[in-house]
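@channel sequence for tomorrow's demo:
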Amino acid sequence: MGKSRQTKSKGVPPDLQESVDSFLAYLALERGLAKLTTEAYEDDLMRFSKHCASAGRSSWVDVNLGDIESWVKVLNRKGHASASLARRISAVRTFAAHLVRSGLRRDDFTELARSPKMKRSLPAILSPEQAALVVSAPDTSKPQGLRDRAMLELMYGSGLRISELCSLELQAVDIESALVRVRGKGSKDRVVPVGESALKTLQHYLKDGRPKLSRPKTGSALFLSARGQALSRKTFWLSVKQAARRAGVDVPVKPHLLRHAFATHLLAGGADLRSIQEMLGHADIATTQIYTTVERTALSAAHRKHHPRGKKSSS
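structure tokens (generated this afternoon):
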């Protein structure tokens, strides 16, 4: 057990820890969840385990509804946002259901637990003009600029998540067919089309950028850091912020905003929702449907701004 893992489990009774470890192995091996997702489950469950231990619980058989309700009260007092609370409760619910399936409990202690009410917020909107400015902002006279330009083009042009983009390997891109194979959430693969603009910048990067970033021990990662290693999400996040500053865009630009722009602009151009769902890798079309609300909001704003009868009367 590593030092960080030991720190997480400090103060947790062995029986509680053993069941959590078994559940995490199930998520990784049987359900094929991504490492980051599994780590998020681990963090939430270890927090809850410590709370249960402080209440005198040494086995999951002893844990009851009152334990999760008291934990939620503690999190509320600490100022956790509704989204954070909902995620933590969801993790415990999934774990509790696993305990029942595994025969470790006869009942689900979370069955009557109440989740905080969530107001689903709309993604921020980036106009096509703003997106174009951000994507074209990197200095392509440098290898890092060629890399960033290609990454921005792929994120906006193909709707990739930042984790998907940074984990791409050379063999994932089929230049001739203009397709990229992406490993998404839950280790599920999908094939996404690559636009002409993204293809050109990618070819430019592969010819003049990547060879200059590559080192003797460089592997098959597509996008490389200055040290010749796979570019980290944190470094690309900084590259996106730098591109937004260079572009002079007044919207707070985060990597995911370009993915939102990809979906919103496709919808505005007439693409059907099912196709967008497939390209984004959403398991549930309800997740994709939020972009229809974004598009209606944008249309309403345009109407209010430009139509002579759309503006509110001052009287």
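heads up for whoever presents: The longest strand covers residues 179-183.
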